[in-house]
From TrEMBL:
Residues 1-12 have a biased composition (Polar residues). It is a multi-pass membrane protein. Keywords: Membrane, Transmembrane, Transmembrane helix. It is found in: Membrane. GO terms for molecular function: transmembrane transporter activity. It comes from the Eukaryota. InterPro entries: MFS_trans_sf. The lineage of its organism: Eukaryota, Fungi, Dikarya, Ascomycota, Pezizomycotina. This is Major facilitator superfamily domain-containing protein. GO terms for cellular component: membrane. The chain crosses the membrane at residues 165-188, 209-228, 234-255, 398-418, 486-507. Residues 1-26 are annotated as: Disordered.
């Protein structure tokens, strides 16, 4: 699992092609025209990178819809549980969900069930993805991402419609969660995969930072707007989410065809190692002795093609690649630890006696830290260090280490939050740790040929789904342990898991 075997042949070419035209020496006129030059540079980027721009837009719409309905869904669950609880009390006047006093719901019996239900929702979110992730990945591999995105966006809009109009019981809510899994992980992972093969340069991780910053930018808009709309009608956030997904469908329609990989013989550590076992060359006329090959690869792995549907075999070989076990470890345990953040709204609502519509503003603090890290600090840092010749894998690994350490700090402060100021500070610190995901993606993609990126991220989606499948009920149960103020046991467990990951990351090494 050590990183000392990482391939150092990941030299990357510039992502953006040079702007055509004769270079001019800088002069007074040139300096005065810098706004025009900036506009022309942006125009050139948009024209020459349509897939990247469409991916940015599709991800914005998807995350906007996801964050728009996040708190309203919890609110509907709470109303359903609260209404059922008081309906069963013979001495209490019966109330209905539309006119129920939310303050009546802030009691341990209701909040315990809500925490368990929120954790169980992660399981219902993850289960359909676990069953169909590889199938939908094969659709994108055989054709392109268009057909897959059409289906997933339709699922998302339908689930939001079911939630907003018909969620009046716990059973209906879990059904909507099962049906609407694709409103989050699968659709987001799919729309990202369209651009991974497009990013093959020293700038790749920088653009992954910008791509990862989009969901955090949406949290500056969606949750506050959702909170305001909830005060008017509970179904209005779901209507806005459906509108955002409709805009996403339009982006898919006008999006250029995503990259498809045809049968070829790309040079990669994976194929180079496998070819030697069959007595063939790796493409450069050289052959590696069998004793120097990675352990566990016992057959030739075919290049991805429409006829090759043996995804499981490919994924098993990917897991055996040097360096990738460490990446898969983080892909599993980091999302599992971060699940506890989903209980922050309920935590604040119960401990500080806030209405759930008021907790939407907590997203502002987390989004501020996340946006600062992924949109400003890390892209600039990556650009500066790249120009100074820092090894790309070393940069990614150091970002992973620092981000995990920041996340540990954030969860410790979150567990000790005795007042709202500490809670906002903790969420800001947790937001600053969001640079880990794009750095980890950049590290993983640098270890294999771009032709296997679709396989890689399909397997990553499965790993993250398993993390949700296990982590959701676990964190829900931990959250319901004790109801004294600042008794967020789940936040302490998350801090412990992340600290172990920090230790593992610190002992990894990159071979120059």
């Amino acid at each position: 699992m050590g990183m000392n075997h990482l391939s150092s042949n990941n030299e990357r070419q510039p992502l953006l092609p040079p702007i055509r035209g004769h270079a001019k020496s800088p002069g007074p006129d040139t300096v005065c025209q810098w706004p025009v030059r900036g506009i022309l540079a942006i125009r050139t980027f948009v024209v020459e990178n349509p897939i990247l721009i469409c991916t940015f837009g599709l991800q914005f719409c998807t995350y906007f819809a996801k964050h728009m309905v996040e708190v309203p869904t919890i609110k509907l669950f709470e109303q359903a549980i609260c209404n059922r609880y008081y309906f069963d009390q013979p001495i209490h006047p019966r109330v209905t969900a539309p006119d129920i006093d939310e303050r009546l719901c802030k009691i341990p019996a209701i909040q315990n069930e809500l925490a368990s239900l929120t954790g169980l929702k992660f399981t219902f979110d993850a289960l359909p993805g676990l069953l169909t992730a590889l199938y939908y990945g094969s659709i994108a591999d055989r054709y392109n991402a268009h057909a897959q995105n059409y289906i997933l966006t339709a699922y998302s809009g339908s689930a939001d419609l079911v939630d907003g109009l018909y969620l009046r019981s716990v059973v209906q809510g879990l059904y909507a969660a099962f049906y609407g899994f694709y409103s989050s992980a699968m659709l987001i992972r799919t729309c990202r995969s369209s651009s991974y093969g497009y990013l093959q340069s020293s700038s790749a991780t920088r653009y992954m930072y910008l791509l990862a910053g989009i969901p955090h930018l949406t949290t500056l808009l969606a949750p506050p707007l959702s909170g305001l709309l909830m005060l008017i009608r509970i179904w209005l956030p779901f209507a806005v989410a459906i509108g955002a997904l409709t805009l996403g469908l339009l982006i898919i329609i006008f999006m250029p065809e995503s990259l498809r990989y045809h049968s070829s013989s790309p040079k990669s550590p994976l194929l180079g190692a496998a070819d030697t076992l069959t007595g063939t060359n790796s493409g450069d006329g050289t052959t590696t002795p069998p004793e120097q090959l990675p352990r566990g690869i016992h057959y030739r792995l075919p290049v991805p093609s429409p006829e090759n549907k043996e995804w499981w075999r490919d994924i098993i070989v990917l897991i055996q690649m040097p360096g990738l076990p460490f990446c898969y470890l983080l892909f599993f345990f980091k999302p599992l630890a971060m699940i506890s953040k989903a209980f922050v709204y309920q935590y604040a609502s119960y401990n500080f006696q806030w209405g759930l519509s008021q907790t939407t503003w907590l997203r502002f603090s987390q989004a501020g830290g996340s946006s600062l890290a992924t949109v400003v600090v890390l892209p600039l840092l990556s650009s500066v260090l790249n120009r100074r010749g820092l090894h790309a894998q070393m940069l990614d690994l150091n970002v992973i280490r620092v981000s995990l350490l920041v996340a540990v700090t954030g969860f410790v402060v979150l567990q000790l939050s005795y007042h709202s100021g500490m809670l906002l500070l903790a969420l800001f610190i947790c937001g600053m740790s969001e640079g880990e995901e794009p750095a980890l993606q950049g590290l993983a993609t640098s270890l294999i040929d771009h032709a296997y990126h679709a396989r890689l991220f399909t397997s990553v989606a499965v790993v993250e789904i398993l993390a949700k499948l296990i982590g959701g009920p676990m964190m829900g149960r931990l959250f319901s342990i004790g109801h004294a103020k600042s008794s967020g046991v789940c936040f302490s467990v998350s801090a412990i898991i992340l600290f172990i990951l920090v230790v593992i990351a610190c002992v990894q090494r990159v071979k120059r």
